[in-house]
Amino acid sequence: MTKIILYHGTSMKNAKRIEKEGFVPDKRYNWKVKSKKGFVYLSSAYAPFYALNHGTKMLALIKVEVDTNDLYPEDDFIMFAIKKPSYTQEELDGISLENNKNLWCKSLQFMGNVAVRPEKIKIIGIRIFNGEKLIFKCDPVISPTNFLIMGDYYKKLSEWIFEGKDFMDFPNLMEFSR
Known about the structure:
Elements: E1 3-11, H1 12-21, E2 40-43, H2 47-52, E3 58-67, E4 71-73, H3 75-81, H4 89-93, H5 104-110, E5 113-116, E6 122-130, H6 144-162, H7 173-176
Antiparallel strand pairs: 1-3, 2-5, 3-6, 4-5
């Protein structure tokens, strides 16, 4: 069993609920195409961006520990892998995460994201922060190409925010890459 640390981005309100009740998937969706039912989505890099998409200024990063045996590939990774970077609900519904479980490692390696069943997540901590100006540091296009080029930047930004540092003090891309 190998444990890894990942992040989940959400609103402060949702984080407080998750802290009390644990992760409960399928309560609310942020996207037009709904994610696979019964899973929670985690990221090594993009959790701040996912938090930002909750439409509120008070955001949260939830730092979690999961066993790699419990991971599944993320929806978008599978769809990119079958050359459908843009897809419909029906196309996603036709894909089984269970049948593609062995791709979790590639999903994390090339997209920075994975899926996991909620009962398999151990919450390590929660960081609440004001994300009002986060867009100035975090507005990625989630794709294998972006992760290849910008993955380290977004991973470090997630860690920076979780440590309680002001994200506006995070180095800009030109400073970061030196």
